[in-house]
Specification:
heterodimer, A: 532 residues, mainly alpha, 2 domains, 19 helices, B: alpha/beta, 6-stranded mixed β-sheet, globular
């Protein structure tokens, strides 16, 4: 039991370190960082909380007005499970089947079951956190909009406590399947990224459509009820809470808890074998290839590219903005008529359509933060570059170039799509491409300078460098702040100048700032890199 | 080839290296011995430009490491005590990266083959470095160090993790390198290896150079181990 307690403490400490960074010193900087991250976490909780409150409010009204209260709880359980499952399936894969400290722990006098329980505990904590937001919103809207019974409340609480365990069971199963599918392949990170993007796309689709679906539920309540009625578990959940049906509650709890018990039983019996079986990709024998060599700059660029594509965490966290940028470009082209309608005869004049879209492209570019963690990602292999006969500025330039290559390519594609959508004039074409591109360079430079200011080189897991570094945080939100400034400049000048000229001021401003930041990067930045 | 003149490195209020002076001539294998935390790694890192220092000068093949770091680094190779390489590259890609950085042309193909076959790593070069054992990573770091034919090679505990055959190969390569006019400066705790391999040896204690010179000058008729233990008292 003491070993299990110690493991739980280690898990919680690593969880805290992953999301809040190291806090060895209790100095002002650490406290400030903790406060900023706590505020950010509160912002996320409140945003999602309000999103779910809005959805459940509409659903409560729609279903309960039609006497279909049970359907409200069925949809709650379905939504709660879906968000928990998507949110933790990759953590389950990493924690249960690919944890790096398994060998270390198994060599100690600790029961494998304790290791398993400590890992399941952390996934349960994550599930419970999500469950708190979703079920909290559902419960709140239920209490506000509908009379509640004591039995109903008991059923709601018991089911909401059981749902994270049910989700945990299925996350563990799917985590195992994904791990199995990716273990034997060479491009593991690419496949993991594709899986993650598919899950994310599904999640975004559901979130994006949820309002429309919820709205349509108001006149399709009967249809939804009909569709969910044959799914006995969803029907039981609904009737257990809405009608206080004890039999339905017992059936529900059995359906939610038995899979968890079964999953635990299987995992308990297979955990040791799973984590000690080596399932590596087939060995590839080296065949000699003549290679005449290339420039140091090209080689540094290739190294950055290879690091990026070899890490699913880096690709997903730092490069997702590029995917979003292209996706939004496509969306704008497809929905160009609907977007144009918004600016026709609305509160915002039509001449604002193009600058708003150009600024939106800059905002999307601010979400691509490839350069910000790139210094920290050198980690313990920093000695290679530091002992090599290359100027530190060359290393930083390669990092900047790679950021600009990925984010810039996405930006140009999105710009072209936007220009096609708004049937841009030649001047708008030029501005629409140049302004976001200059912003991409700005984001890259800002990220690198922040990376040099706040390097995290002693990480154990590269996600610490990608996700938790102060550099990423400041670069992303700093760039978002810059977008607000750009919008303010063109909006202010638009009263004095034609819109194209107002946007030219943004372009000139960005070019000047880029130049200054670049100069700082290759002088002070290079000095800082040399002394890391 | 390497001239360390009154090198001093301070961490907080502790002098990690205290007024250290020594020089290494072409053709010499120079062993650097000391207890844990004596200042060996700090000295090696300072000599190859990985660490700044508080006083003194370090000159590598005529290039001041502070004033002309790139000129100095072109002539040297460094192998750290723990070979943290780019896990995301394959062995061959890492070697090509190093070759590009040091400007090695088409001759790299033959050099890679010769060196990798010598260490039995040739067939594994297509594998990602993350799949390598500690010893394989150490071998790859050694191959990368020799790839651009540096004049001075600095190594921190180079024999750790190597199997006996590879240790033997490394010793032979060190001697061959010095016979061609190069020089080697390396730290080790294996006194028997130092005694058999080194032309000169320096013993450092609490950051200060205690004794240095040819092997005969340092140990006389005693064993290096006896001398070291005596000095450590």
């Amino acid at each position: 039991m003491s070993a299990l307690k110690a493991l739980m403490r280690v898990r919680l400490a690593s969880f805290k370190q992953l999301y809040l960074g190291k806090s060895k010193t209790k100095n002002g900087k650490e406290r400030n960082k903790a406060v900023i991250l706590a505020l950010l976490a509160a912002y996320v909780v409140v945003t999602f909380g309000f999103l779910f409150i809005g959805n459940f409010s509409m659903m409560a009204q729609a279903f309960m007005a039609q006497g279909l209260a049970w359907t409200y709880f069925s949809v709650w359980a379905l939504l709660d499970f879906a968000v928990m499952f998507v949110g933790t399936v990759f953590t389950a894969k990493a924690q249960l089947y690919e944890a790096k400290d398994n060998d270390l722990l198994l060599a100690m006098p600790i029961r494998p079951r304790d290791i398993l329980v400590s890992r399941l505990f952390m996934i349960w904590v994550m599930n419970s956190f999500i469950n708190l937001i979703v079920s909290g919103a559902a419960g709140l809207m239920w209490v506000v909009r509908y009379p509640v019974s004591a039995m109903g409340v008991v059923a709601f609480l018991l089911i909401s406590l059981s749902l994270p365990l049910f989700s945990l069971a299925l996350s563990a199963l799917f985590g195992f399947l994904i791990s199995l599918a990716t273990r034997r392949v060479r491009n593991k990170s690419v496949i993991t990224t594709v899986f993650s993007l598919l899950f994310l796309a599904a999640y975004m689709y559901v979130i994006n459509k949820s309002n429309a679906w919820v709205e349509s539920l108001s006149y399709m309540g009967g249809y939804v009820a009909q569709a969910l009625h044959p799914v006995f578990l969803l029907r039981w959940i609904g009737t257990a809470v809405a009608n206080g049906d004890v039999k339905a509650l017992a059936g529900t709890l059995a359906c939610l808890l038995v899979p968890f018990a079964l999953a635990f039983w299987i995992l308990d019996r297979t955990f040791f074998k799973n984590v000690t079986t080596v399932r590596s990709a087939a060995k590839k024998e080296y065949k000699e290839q003549a290679y005449s060599g290339g420039s140091a700059a090209a080689s540094l660029f290739r190294k950055e590219a290879k690091r990026f594509v070899s890490s699913s965490g880096y690709m997903l966290n730092a490069g997702l903005g590029a995917v979003m940028e292209v996706a939004v470009g496509v969306l704008i082209l497809v929905k160009r008529e609907s977007i144009a309608v918004l600016f026709r005869g609305g509160a915002v004049p039509p001449q604002y359509l193009f600058p708003v879209l150009a600024t939106a492209l800059c905002l999307l570019a601010s979400m691509t933060d490839i350069s910000a963690p790139s210094v920290s990602l050198e980690g313990r292999s920093l000695w290679i570059l530091r002992s090599a006969p290359i100027h530190p500025a060359a290393v930083l330039r390669a990092k900047l170039q790679f950021h600009c290559a990925v984010s810039g390519a996405a930006s140009v594609i999105a710009s072209v799509l936007v220009c096609l959508a708004v049937e841009a004039t030649p001047a708008q074409w030029a501005l629409g491409i140049v302004m976001p591109l200059l912003f991409v360079v700005f984001e890259g430079l800002l990220g690198l300078l922040c990376g040099l200011k706040y390097p995290v080189l002693d990480w154990e897991n590269e996600n610490q460098a990608v996700k938790t570094g102060m550099a990423v945080f400041i670069a992303m939100f700093g760039a978002m702040g810059a977008v607000v400034v750009l919008a303010g400049v063109w909006a202010g000048l638009s009263f004095l100048l034609p819109m194209e000229l107002a946007l030219c001021a943004d372009v000139l401003l960005l070019a000047a700032v880029d130049l200054l930041l670049y100069r700082r990067l290759v002088t002070r930045g290079a000095e800082t890199f040399a002394s890391l | 080839m390497l001239k360390i003149d009154h090198l001093t490195k301070i961490y907080g209020d502790k002098k990690a290296v205290d007024d250290l002076t020594l020089s290494i001539a072409p053709g010499e294998i120079y062993g650097f011995i000391g207890h844990n935390g004596a200042g060996k790694t700090t000295t090696l890192k300072s000599c190859c430009g990985l660490l700044g220092f508080d006083a003194g000068t370090v000159t590598v093949c005529g290039h001041d490491i502070t004033a002309d770091p790139i000129g100095a680094k072109k002539t040297l190779a460094y192998i750290p005590d723990n070979p943290d390489l780019y896990d995301f590259l394959s062995g061959i890609k890492y070697l090509n990266f190093v070759a590009d950085i040091y400007g090695v042309g088409a001759e790299r193909t033959e050099r890679v083959k010769t060196l990798a076959e010598r260490f039995g790593l040739y067939q594994d070069l297509a594998q990602p470095i993350q799949s390598y054992s500690h010893g394989m990573k150490q071998k790859l770091a050694i191959i990368a160090a020799w790839l651009h034919q540096p004049q001075l090679i600095m190594m921190d505990e180079p024999f750790v993790g190597l199997d006996p055959a590879s240790s033997h190969d490394l010793k032979v390569m060190m001697r061959e390198h010095c016979d061609r006019g190069g020089a080697i400066f390396f730290s080790t705790h294996v006194l028997e290896v130092a005694e058999k391999l080194c032309d000169k040896v320096a013993i450092i204690k609490n950051g200060k150079l205690v004794v240095s010179g040819t092997m005969e000058e340092v140990k006389g008729n005693a064993s290096l181990e006896d001398v070291f233990l005596e000095l450590e008292k």
